[in-house]
Design a protein that fits this description.
alpha+beta, flat
Length: 664
């Protein structure tokens, strides 16, 4: 018999039906030469510290760092897990072959392999690797099973991720709790520190402090209205990019052009194109659902996972927005499958998937199909199965995915971008940062949609999802259709001096925090640059939602409306942590990059393990040798506190003279 092990009971049940294993037993199905069973969640995990040695049962600084000679796995202590594992162990001992039908990703590979190891599996193991759970995909997958050795690097990356989380989390949490936490014994506050969660919290705290310490500055903008169109002055900026820092200077400029004629010096009209929006990866889908429906990242992940298990969308835990070229011939069938629900599909149904060239061909753009941008899985798209029996929120998520998919095969949106330049001579020369001003240049831009193309998929309206969170365009600056101007024309105008105030950065919401995690804290609006930095992000797309939820659960962050705020506990924790390794988004991003390199065979797991051990030793050493928090060696009453460059006594106001530089 061949044993197939799925990731969940409902997935196992469907795979069994496809394979013809229709006889139900307790914990598995049987039939047609197959047993089909399942795991659910993590059946196995790494040992707790106390299970390695008695020395690690108690929390003592002297016992740190805890670095096992060899990491071991255990069965999780749960009645249901023990029962299901017993069923799997019995089936593994009798089968002739195991087919790993687990989640087709790093974590899914790790979960399954640990179960087989713990069960003492000695038979060959094959791997089912599919991007959707449709009957067609499963049948095709079983025809092309691969030996599990081909996924060894994926398993090693998952294993090193788990080991890294254990080493940093266990050691740093104990070290900082023992050294800096309030209380003692059972009443001691636990300072939970994690390889991914702590730099994420640090991002939130840093942004919050930038907002709280922000000092607004007043500046002025000179504009003028000519033929009911508002032009903006193009003046040389001062050191902080604001051209007019005083009302006196601004008024001088306005007075100098009042009554003087406005002259159009240039009219430039360029035709351009706007490509369809990129297909969804998990992060961009979570960002979009948060922006449009105020869904949390975790809620979105649950909905898209459900859509995957209902076989209406493809594998969700992906970090690419591209499709592999072998998907191209299947696009017409997918479009046919959803035409009943989306009339926007109709113009595409007569197009043939014959290479994307010529009239009547389905487009095959490199912006959609690129094998080099796809590794294990492609972007999230519909499978073509009928999207029936969806909840209201599942329907919202599915509609986003489907419309984005349909729009990808529509023509580009054709636009005309117009730039009009003008000038006004001053009534008298004005002193500026660049010398004397004898005229003031002005500019206005406009945009006209000539052919909506893919935008018709969104009912010819500006889809909310095309707007960027960072867009701060004021009403008069937004792109619009301009009246017809002619170079050389001239006429009266009305100057306006507007007072402005600089604004602080915005608090993170879940969408913008996910983007920051994706790019290791770098604020990037350009889609291509963001794609390039994905490999250096904090965490994986599949884990980021759980990290954010963990920060909520531990009371380190809280929701205030749509914004995320760090709590006092979270702020104090970040201020307490002295190791830059634990707080740096960039450094954590580099570790993530190395894990991906392990998957590709560009970096060895032993190298990564050695570096993780060194990092753990360094973190513990920094805590042990840091004098902050110790009893003052001079007055023996206060606590040693750390300043920017020196240690001192907390009772310095009472006259304690202790002070010394630190060089850690």
């Amino acid at each position: 018999m061949i044993l197939c092990v799925a990731e969940k009971p409902n997935v196992g049940q469907y795979i069994a039906s496809v394979l013809g294993a229709n006889v139900k037993h307790d914990g598995y199905y049987e039939g047609n030469g197959y047993w089909v069973s399942w795991t659910f969640g993590h059946l196995c995990g790494l040992y707790d510290p106390a299970e390695y040695t008695d020395l690690w049962k108690g929390w003592n600084l002297s016992s740190l760092p805890m670095i096992p000679e060899r990491f071991s796995i255990k069965l999780m202590d749960d009645k249901g897990i023990r029962k299901q594992f017993g069923i799997l162990q019995n089936l593994i001992s009798q089968c002739t072959e195991v087919v790993n039908c687990g989640d087709a990703g790093q974590e899914g590979e790790l979960i399954q392999r640990w179960v087989y190891q713990k069960a003492g599996c000695k038979v060959p193991v094959k791997r089912l690797w599919v991007s959707s759970l449709t009957e067609e995909a499963i049948r095709e997958g079983f025809k092309s099973l691969k030996d599990q050795s081909e996924y060894q690097r994926l398993y090693e990356a998952g294993l090193l991720r788990a080991i890294g989380d254990w080493l940093l989390g266990m050691n740093a949490t104990r070290a900082y709790t023992l050294r800096y936490a309030n209380g003692a014994g059972k009443d001691r506050q636990i300072l939970s520190i994690g390889r991914v969660q702590t730099p994420t919290l640090a991002l939130i705290v840093k942004r919050q402090q930038e907002i709280e310490h922000f000092v607004p500055k007043t500046y002025y903008e000179l504009k003028t209205k000519y033929r009911d169109t508002l032009f903006s002055a193009q003046l040389p900026a001062e050191e902080d990019d604001y051209a007019i820092r005083s009302i006196e200077y601004g008024q001088q400029l306005a007075d100098a052009i009042t009554g003087q004629p406005f002259t159009v010096t240039s009219v430039e009209k360029k035709k351009g194109t706007e490509s369809p929006l990129k297909l969804f990866d998990l992060t961009s889908l979570q960002v979009e659902c948060n922006k449009r429906f105020n869904m949390s990242a975790d809620t979105t992940l649950k909905h898209i996972q459900s859509l995957y298990e209902k076989r209406v969308t493809t594998y969700p835990r992906v970090d690419t927005t591209y499709l592999s070229e072998d998907i191209y011939p299947k696009i017409p069938a997918t479009l046919q499958g959803i035409k009943e629900y989306f009339p926007q599909v109709q113009p595409l149904l007569q197009l043939k998937a014959d290479g994307g060239k010529g009239k009547g061909s389905l487009p095959k753009s490199k912006k959609v199909f690129d094998n080099k941008k796809v590794t294990d899985h492609h972007a999230i798209i519909p499978t073509g199965q009928r999207p029936d029996n969806l909840s209201a929120d599942e329907r919202k998520v599915f509609n986003l995915i489907a419309l984005r998919f349909i729009a990808a095969f529509y023509p580009d949106c054709l636009v005309a971008n117009t730039t009009v330049l003008g000038e006004v001579k001053t009534s008298a020369p004005i002193n500026s940062t660049d010398g004397e001003l004898n005229l003031i240049p002005f500019k206005v831009t406009g945009r006209e949609v000539l052919d909506p193309g893919w935008r018709t998929v969104y009912d010819k309206t500006e889809p909310e999802e095309t707007k960027n969170d960072s867009d701060e365009n004021t009403e008069e600056e937004s792109a619009k259709v301009l009246p017809s101007f002619t170079k050389g024309e001239s006429g009266p105008h009305t100057p306006e001096l507007k007072e402005k105030t600089t604004t602080p950065p915005k608090y993170y919401n879940e969408g913008t925090l996910l983007r920051a995690m994706e790019t290791a804290g770098k604020t990037i609006d350009n889609e291509e640059l963001r794609e390039a930095l994905k490999e250096n992000g904090i965490g994986r797309p599949s884990t980021r939602a759980a990290i954010i939820e963990k920060l909520y659960q531990r009371k380190y962050i809280e929701r205030k409306g749509k914004s995320i705020h760090a709590t006092e506990v979270g702020i104090q924790l970040i201020h307490t942590i002295i190791s830059p390794l634990l707080k740096s988004a960039e450094l954590t991003g580099l570790w993530e990059q190395k894990l991906r390199q392990i998957e590709r065979g560009e970096y060895t797991s032993q190298q990564m393990l050695n570096e993780l051990k060194d990092m753990t030793r360094q973190v513990v050493l920094e805590v042990k040798t840091n004098k902050a928090g110790q009893l003052c060696p001079v007055c023996r009453k206060g606590k040693v506190i750390r300043g920017n460059t020196r240690y001192g006594c907390s009772r310095w106001r009472e006259g304690c003279t202790y002070a010394e530089p630190f060089n850690i």
